[in-house]
Specification:
2 copies of one chain form a homodimer. The first copy, chain A, has 5 helices and 3 strands; from the N terminus they run ααβαββαα. In chain A, strands 1-3-2 form a 3-stranded antiparallel sheet. Helix content of chain A is 44%, strand content 14%. Chains A and B meet through helix 1 and helix 5 of A and helix 1 and helix 5 of B.
Amino acid sequence: MPDEEGHPALEEIRLGPVLSALADPHRRRVVRVLAAEPEGTARTCSSFGLPVSKATLTHHFRVLREAGLIRQVSRGNSRMAGLRRAELEELFPGLLAIVAAEPEA
Amino acid sequence: MPDEEGHPALEEIRLGPVLSALADPHRRRVVRVLAAEPEGTARTCSSFGLPVSKATLTHHFRVLREAGLIRQVSRGNSRMAGLRRAELEELFPGLLAIVAAEPEA
């Protein structure tokens, strides 16, 4: 079952929610930015420059987290988001590269 | 520009509409079934056994067609659907394999 923060375990990650999460251009931008960073990078939610309200930002990160695309951790007063790169590559080989290759809109 | 039946040209196919199309389990089933057939196979829309009304079936095939995932042709009184396999593999390497590998729900 998902942990207390809503992260699914590897074996709970399903293609449907992953594709639904990636169907949104703002959420693809988060994944694209993280995919371009070194392995293990975590960033604050506000650092992605999404042109949305704080509530909408929180919603987008929840969708990404619950689908299994990102892992969020608290560091001090900040929530940091990192890509579940190795797990996603194991489950869906090539998917992150496809998202990473999309031109910036 | 898309042709008169709404098929985008290769260079018009975008990741966003493709992922939105694939976010739906019924539409993934169509792609999964076609991906398991020999190259060039075309099937009638009703042959996929989707448990939906005719209007909903038409909608799902329109979304797949306009995203660039399938090509539909008329043969006699039937509309046949085939996968745009080579074009999709060129644009989004590995994506069809990911969809094809999803277990049947």
